[in-house]
Amino acid sequence: MPVSVPLPVPLGRLASAAVALWLAPLAALADERCDRGPVRAELAIEIARDVGVALIKELECDDDRWEVEGRDARGHEIKVEIDPRTGRVLKVERD
Question: 45: closest CA among 85, 84, 1?
Answer without folding.
Answer: 84
